[in-house]
Amino acid sequence: MGEVELSCRAYVKMYLHACLFPRCGINGLLLSSGSAGGAVCVTDCVPLLHSHLPLAPISQLALTQVDVWCSQTQQRIVGYYQANACVSDSSPTPCALKIADKISEQFDNAVLLMLDGGKMTADYRLPPIVVYERRDSRWLLKDKHTIMLRHWEETQAIAGQMLESGDQALLVDFDSHLDDITKDWTNQKLNSKIAELASPANGNI
Amino acid sequence: MATISEMYDVGWEEMRDKLRKWREDNCRNSEQIVDVGEELISEHASKLGDDVWIIYEQVMIAALDCSRDDLALTCLQELRKQFPDSHRVKRLSGMRLETNTQEKRKISILKAQGKNAEAIRELNEYLEQFVGDQEAWHELSELYINEHDYGKAAFCLEELMMTNPHNHLYCEQYAEVKYTQGGLENLELSRKYFAQALRLNNRNMRALFGLYMSASHIAASPKVSAKVKKDNMKYASWAATQINRAYKLAGRGTKESKCSMKAVEEMLESMQITMS
What stretches of residues are TPR repeats (chain B) (predicted)? Predict the structure, then answer.
């Protein structure tokens, strides 16, 4: 199967989402604004829940809303991410598989990304992610060489810097949006901040 | 977060009388006693006269039940200061020490290690002894949800709703579990409990969306009578109006939430097309 590229913006937001709710399972959707063919370029993500991940109503609602927003903004849902509450276990849960299945019904090269909590320490070198793809109706580990994070060191630095500044408090997931619907789950403010921190020389990060 | 007096529009006298009634009726609604009592003693202690001491005792016992050790200790300290040699106060002191903090620590560790099945077993044992511990019941419901054991999660939430009939969150979570279990009967139950949550708090957006979705699904089911279909379309339509109104109010000001609002509008439209 093809390559997957993870943008700085997508990674940083997933990372901050996990840091904002350290003792909870969290999940979200991976989006792409690129064209359908070739490598899957995950350009953004939408953080969804930090409680009751397996329950249906809010998940269904969130999927529908994000779907509509994507069609309004020329994006598509290309994957799903999750971090488990228990840091030593980064395997996909039944609900992760279920949602990822649904996404792959609409997009052939969908990816399932698990954040590995155990590897999210201050001195980690590699991206703390485990990526799965769908082959023969099952979700199997993707070949590491097909997963790309361009400018990884810079991405990691931005994530660390924002964590230190407490910027994860700015992140709004769908759960938080439902608690206060004036909050923006598209996280425009956070996107701007990330863009500011990314060096201009790197262009489209 | 709103105070009890703000939420229910009651004065301190009504809160005091409520506590008295609960004492006289020997009610076991510890969470409510803690909510009302804590506010009463922190804001109005000076007005309570001699009643304050029996209220401290009542709140302390309820606080232990809800694993609010901080509050229990505060009450106990006030009682000790006032009645330094009292046997009754010594007995309360003993009650506090018996509260099984060791047990709870063990359960937290099991949860952190991801040993859900064991944590569930321990929590069940714990709750046999401390049946009024709301936090424990809620933790157990969350564990069952994560293990996809929705029947048992529902049972825990039923227990919580019984002892906390005014808590809109428990109603709404129960409705979500029922919706997840699926099937027409569960959907109808979920709609009823989403509606109940809204009665308790008309700003609970999850309940509002839940009402919309459950009513829409029921209306779309081929198994329901024409009357049931019509009723549920009415509920769904009402919910949709409320949702739109809430988003319009929210959108007035920030341009980012206009994204959400447009998405909701389109979503409601598209759901209606599939439901009709």
Answer: 134-167
- Residue A4 phi/psi, 5-degree rounding, is -125, 130
CA distance B125 to B121: 6
Tell me which chain A residues have a C-beta less than 8 angstroms from the C-beta of B213: 57, 60-61
Whether the CA torsion A119, A83, A77, A70 is positive or negative: it is negative
Measured distance CA(B254)–CA(B266) in Å, rounded: 19
Which comes out higher in pLDDT, residue B64 or B178? B178
Which of B213, B242, B249, B261 has the most A C-beta neighbours within 10 Å, making it the best mutation to test the interface with A?
B213
Q: What are phi and psi of A130, to 5 degrees?
A: -125, 125
How does the average pLDDT of chain B come out, rounded? 88
Note whether B250 contacts A182, CB cutoff 8 Å.
yes
pTM over 0.95: no
Chosen from B118, B170, B198, B260 to mutate, greatest number of chain A CBs within 10 A: B260
Shortest CA distance to B124 belongs to which of B141, B105, B145?
B141
Q: Decide: B100 and B130 in contact? Cβ < 8 Å.
A: yes
How long a stretch of residues is chain B? 276
